[in-house]
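[job 4417] fold queue: 2 targets
>>> target A
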Amino acid sequence: MWIIIGKNKLLRIVTIVFILLIILSLIFGKVIKTDAKPKGYIVLVIDDFGNNGDGTKEMLSLDIPITVAVMPFMSYSQEEAKKAHKAGFEVIMHVPMEPVHGKKEWLGPKGITCDLSLDEVKSRINEGLDILKYAKGMNNHMGSKVTQDKRIMKAILEIAKEKNLYFVDSKTTPKSIVHNIADKLGAISFERDIFLDNNKDIKSIEKQLLKLGNIAIKKGYAIGIGHVGPEGGTVTVKAIKNVYPTLQEQGIKFIYPSQLEMFTK
């Protein structure tokens, strides 16, 4: 038995179905496209650029926000800072600072040591920033001795405040006074939560990244420090690539230190 439908009635049915489809697509499309508020934020700082170290090219090819910490007085400092900036990454100056244990020559040229005059400290910091003109901030390379020295850190953080730069304390010593001095000066500072690549085992680095994600969810944000060169390099790059999708699924967003302003108020 055939049901005969007039043209006008058929047109009305088609129109109603079409409208319903549009409404459904809008409803479900909105649900799919709406960006949920992140459950936490991760800042990845990658140290030791400026040496053309292992993993440099691969790290700068990542499609993930990383903060590129460049040592200022090395052979490839300007070149790698420029490449990082051109790739859209945030650049900071990786300031070589005297450790409690170790040799001064480990710092490379123009490192910050506790026996320097304040004028020389400021001269070296400003010269380094002139070389790395894209720098949005600074962090310390080694520095377990200097970050306990009120005289030196005050001079460095005064420059940071003057130039509207932030300072990421790598926390190479639990006795660091960086945050206390920055707070008194009104300078912006942050502290490292986790070192990613204490060894070059990819599974270990992946675990550190997942741990960083847990901290970010609990605290709101977390800062992890990795490396190019002998401490990390291509192994760290692979670990980041492997874990990044999992962290995204957990609702974590990767950002730069300059975007942590929401946590400084």
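>>> target B
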Amino acid sequence: MKSLTDVTAEDLAQPGPDGIQPLLDILQQRYGDQLQAVLLYGSCRRDTDVHDGLVDLLAIVKSYRRTHSGWLSGTLNWSLPPNVYFLQADSVPSPVRCKYAVITLSQFIRRCRSFSDHYFWARFTQPSRLVYTSDPSLLPGQIAVARALAARQYCRRVAPLNPRPMTARDLWELALQTTYRCELRPEPPGNARRLIDADPDFWESLTAALAHEGVIKKSAPNRYLSTGGSFRTAVARTEWQIRRVTGKLFNLARLFKAAGTFSNGIDYITWKVERHSGIRVEATERMRRYPRLSAWGLAWRMWRQGGFR
């Protein structure tokens, strides 16, 4: 039986898609010896052509103070991680684009093992690729351990929501759907199932490892059950009701923090909200000129029109 860390380590070691090297080259030039590792996650991980989408990367750095040129960016990254930036690299046959998040290794580990940070649980329990590391002998193991911590926390908080036996697919579909409701990202029906079905072996191995560690228990072949009783189910439902409020507030704060770190950040926000909700709010030139000052007024207009659910 593979351990949970073995499962996440093997997943990290899988090759990423072709075409992202120009992005990695720019990140190495931009951050130099402060850049420790880069993770690829999100939908573009599965794409054969990354030129058509927006790649999701996580840049793990040594220090916020030495990474950021200004104290404000470093302070925001420490208090509400991660900072998110836009990057475009020239490539053949067309440019490749990404949004990349910046975080220190210590804070990444801390957030993954947090009792409440579903933002990190959901993103880094999912399949990810380690596409760059400055220390192949140490960092992959530390990142695999952090992802295993995220998977444990995610499973412990989600499994009690359904007191009946579940397949691995049922468990993680429930986890993703629950997390979606805590973020400003209404997803199309069936999106969680499509995501699980894209990597069935990974999710089966992950769930079996969690059962082996006692986080959940195996009730029948390919069926799993929460280790808690009815009281734990009631507590879990209350916790997720609270996260539906706090999670959206934190997601909103992170989104509008990106207004000041993205090039064309205001346009990114309007595009992001329209993509997930169908609500379009036109950004003005004044908003583009003063993105941090304009972001909250824009948020109010979007909320009134139903852009945030």
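[job 4417] complete. Note on B: The chain has 14 helices and seven strands.
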